[in-house]
Write a structure and sequence with these properties.
Structural class: alpha+beta
Number of domains: 3
CATH class of the largest domain: Mainly Beta
Helix content: 25-40%
Bound molecules: flavin mononucleotide
Radius of gyration: 24 Å
Shape: globular
Length: about 500
Amino acid sequence: MTGPFGSLRDYLKAVDELGQVLHVDKVDQDAFEATGFMYALIDKVGWGEAPIVSFNQVKTGGRWMEGPVIGNPWGRWQYEPMAFGVNAQGTNQRELYRSTLAKLETLVDEEGQWPAVEPTEISPEDAPCKEVTLLDDAIDLTQFPFLKTNPADGGPYINTGNVILEDPKYGRNAGTYRCQIKGPRKIGVNPERNQHGWTFLMDMKDRGEPFARAAVVLGADPIVFAMSSSKTTRLGQDELKVAGGFLGRPVEVVKCETSDLRVPANVEMVIEGEIPFDFEPEGPFGEMYGYIGEMKSENFFMNVTAVTHRKNPIFINNFTGIHRGFLTSPLEMTSNLNYRKKFPSVLSVHFPLQTPGYCFIQIKKMRPGDAIEIGSEISKTLKIAKIAIVVDEDVDVHNFTEVMHAVGSRWQPQQATQIIAEAGAMGGDPSSPTRGSGSRIVIDATRKQPDEGGPEVYAKMNRECLLAEAPDIFTHIDDKFGDLINGWKS
Ligand SMILES: Cc1cc2nc3c(=O)[nH]c(=O)nc-3n(C[C@H](O)[C@H](O)[C@H](O)COP(=O)(O)O)c2cc1C
């Protein structure tokens, strides 16, 4: 089965058919077995290689519950071309990822706009997410396997929910914000300050509205989830429309039971409710940097008015800080396009989420000082880019080792570094003196030209000399020894 997939189920089935879903019968999450399992698996297999894990039954809150609860749903780069329906061959994960970036780039129009297709409404009878409807006292969120991932977390969390809001000024927004389970019919809702969801809610509060109607969508298809989880769209752009553009067909939506909100219909569960503008404490929560974030004294919460779900819903738990959280190619493509527009020297920008805080920027240097100027602008405008490393066009930004090699061999700390003393910071960065602010560093790891203080003649790389002497060496080796090399198992 190939993508784009209209549902999470179809996507998981396709990955399972590749033999890349590890099925685990039972885990006792009251003893943190699922969390320990994910750490141990990724320690052993590696961040970009580990399979999807499906925990069939999970004990949580003292009760055994039916899953499956899925971990690491977006781990491998090869899932990007699968999910976006890109016909990409081969096994090299980096190449598969790049082929997705290349395909997505062709979808953008001259003004840099993503394709958009208006969602289409279907009737509740046809909506998979409405196979079961729970209202009033029948609602009890504690009966579902939402996990407390870390012993230090404030409680169990729904941490892959796409929060849908509508506003007359901005239209619709879908944003993935963690939701702490606070009771059978009450959850926290955590858009960070200045997220689009935060702007929607604060505007409603300022207009004097008593509450916001919201719906939390669980188990959306990979594209809707990626759109909801990344800053691919601007404030006022509907993520569901852009998702339809990528899908090549409209996202099917259905009306909520207790509001006029329209939500994706082909999902596992929808939690509807009202967000009043009184605030409550929330957290702590183990964040993407892999550290426990501080407890928030004031946060949004939602009183749940309805839950609808498929008969045997699939749950996704994000083991935050352990595995990748979403498909990143639309976001990466968006930042490539934005920065290329601003700086013609920029070729690509990559932020490796397994080591949050870094950003690798590949440029074709056009004039002295290009690298620091570009690195500094990107570092100041992209919060995740606390350490911005600028490399030449022969360095693969998707290859961590190559980037580190360039730093070791092309960077002179005294001459090619800029420190930005004060800038915004990611909320989860534990090194920030105060949450949300910090300093940054730009490392120019490009070959320095003589007018940048570099050597008169830059030494050639061994590999460069090999290719100059034997341009076809790697094709030749692949033809002659490919089976030996590819077949080797450590
Ligand atoms: C699994 C996961 C959990 C996330 N949790 C939060 C969160 O709790 N709060 C937040 O502001 N952003 C969170 N994000 C990031 C946002 O989803 C992302 O910035 C998105 O662009 C927000 O939507 P918006 O741009 O419409 O505000 C999370 C992302 C993922 C993948």
